[in-house]
Description:
The complex is a heterodimer of chains A (35) and B (425).
Chain A: H1 6-13, H2 18-34
Chain B: H1 7-32, H2 44-66, H3 69-76, H4 82-107, H5 109-116, H6 118-131, H7 139-163, H8 172-198, H9 203-226, H10 229-238, H11 244-267, H12 269-276, H13 279-290, H14 299-320, H15 326-343, H16 347-354, H17 368-387, H18 397-422
Helix pairs in contact in B: 1-11, 1-12, 1-13, 1-18, 2-4, 2-9, 2-11, 2-17, 3-9, 4-5, 4-8, 4-9, 5-7, 5-8, 5-13, 6-7, 6-8, 6-12, 7-14, 8-11, 9-10, 11-12, 11-17
Amino acid sequence: xxxxxxxxxxxxxxxxxxxxxxxxxxxxxxxxxxx
Amino acid sequence: xxxxxxxxxxxxxxxxxxxxxxxxxxxxxxxxxxxxxxxxxxxxxxxxxxxxxxxxxxxxxxxxxxxxxxxxxxxxxxxxxxxxxxxxxxxxxxxxxxxxxxxxxxxxxxxxxxxxxxxxxxxxxxxxxxxxxxxxxxxxxxxxxxxxxxxxxxxxxxxxxxxxxxxxxxxxxxxxxxxxxxxxxxxxxxxxxxxxxxxxxxxxxxxxxxxxxxxxxxxxxxxxxxxxxxxxxxxxxxxxxxxxxxxxxxxxxxxxxxxxxxxxxxxxxxxxxxxxxxxxxxxxxxxxxxxxxxxxxxxxxxxxxxxxxxxxxxxxxxxxxxxxxxxxxxxxxxxxxxxxxxxxxxxxxxxxxxxxxxxxxxxxxxxxxxxxxxxxxxxxxxxxxxxxxxxxxxxxxxxxxxxxxxxxxxxxxxxxxxxxxxxxx
Lengths: 35, 425
């Protein structure tokens, strides 16, 4: 894994990345509703 | 991990983290107060933008003042992947903050806070699921933290029950949705926080990159919603007399946020976040004493609000006394080792920084860049402050002074403690 650049590991390998990312997407949806 | 932290150091860091959590609460509550001065006829997106602009300026100038910009860049070289996480956390904050402003407008400051507070429960969930917090902790401590968080949430429900009878400000359903959405955003923002601090990153470094995510998101939201750059700018110019207030709120938020981040670093998110979220109690004091927000309501609503607040305070006390045991700290280290392997970080850096010590022995000095950043920040605040107008509303100056003095006292005490124990690492 260490031959990959850091952004590759952060975005594609780390499953934790997708938790806040999904929440962020949801945030935009909620924002659309409340405006 | 190459070095084992001794128990005395660990307890010292725990006490420091808890103290930072309480100081954060005081400042985060105070940060919402200046936005109360602009509730008349200004787009919430302009308020949000100015708050973030204040935060952006402060997040570059305060680290320059405390440890220098060169130190920030030296720190990030050890953990470059955290730049991505910092920016993402900033985006989450920006949306959370915009939603909070909508919520405050619709259901009021003292009632939007409790719903927003669900972020601490989400923080506990993520801390436990993703970062092995509370793993291998004694049952009494688990109960202290989870029970404390739950009691705080029950207090929040009590307070929100009062909101349905106080629907004068706007649309209550929309306000409640906005506040819960803000809770979800801010609760999940703690994933990047913990990700950074489990690897030992300096909160000052993390927040410097975090601020890019927030300013870009908030500007994009503002420009898109107000109909383009021209319209956005015209709105800013038209509202210039009040721009200082949200900007001041942004500065105060940064101070609170810094303490919250140090708390998240040294006691974890499952303890640090519920503690800093006791800002509701202070928010309530601001609302009642300074702005007279709840005057003229029935005794029943007062009972709900006061009962809810007492529960929150009890929950915070339970969490504060749930010390991290040796075995739980071992679980934190396992989570840190996972990060070390995944991103190829120097284990020595992680171990030293988790203990709140400096890794790089050479001292970085402030340069002209730092002084330029500080001077620019002071100038911007002074210019907007010069244009500011105090709106005609009932403000109790005595209480305003008393609460401000309490905040300054907490700032000095927590700042000194952080310097003595960790040199702000």
